[in-house]
Amino acid sequence: MTETRSIIVELPLSCIIISGDNPREYFDTESIRRLGESIKAHGQVQSVLVRPSGNDYELVVGERRVRACALVGLPTVKAEIRDLDDAAVHELRLIENVHREDLTDAEKGDAVYQLWAFDKYETLKEVCESIRVPYVTVKGGWLPKARKLSPKVKKLIIGGSTGTTSFSDKHAKQVLKYPHSVQDRLADVSVERKLTRRPSLNLSNPLYEHSRSASAHGPRSRPSPGFQPLSSEDRLSRRHGPVSHLPQARNHCRWV
Asked: Tell me, what's the pLDDT at 228?
């Protein structure tokens, strides 16, 4: 990232344009309000970063601080003005956000994909070096969640990060291998029953098996005392007929 000269000024909020390209897709109003009250009482510790855009200024990083000042009625915000190209803007926004706990892995992965699309980066490793995050974290965690998770599951994870749902990135890791329709059903069961353990998000889990059956026959209820989970053979028999009719060689079976 090329170093550029910058100046720090007090900018009217009316001069700042929020582009909507921030990796952060959700802002908790109460958290923003608390930040605004802190700025109002103690002053703004860190400047926001903007770049010139016509007669106004486009916000690069610091959207929470801008929203906070607006929410508590402050007319200006302390801002650093820099001339930056599009690739530098995306890079700075991502670097600002990747170390925040309230940004989900899927949101980080989406931002990495956007950054990688610029000609500045030829490989994913170069992106990782730029944002100072290990390659294995990005490739093994962020990108699969950005690419494979259903829109509904992504929203539930955001809800989990703000405390409005019990779903989290750890839950999401367990549903990656399923189609979107199955991911959504598993997520519904997890949120409804407030399941937190790893086995709760597996198709073979008795709670999911029972909930899927109950949804087809009426309102969900707790498993009866005599309820027994289906064995692997029983489940295969229901889906494909008697187990004896299935191919015996493992190489001939595809598990989905």
From this structure: 58
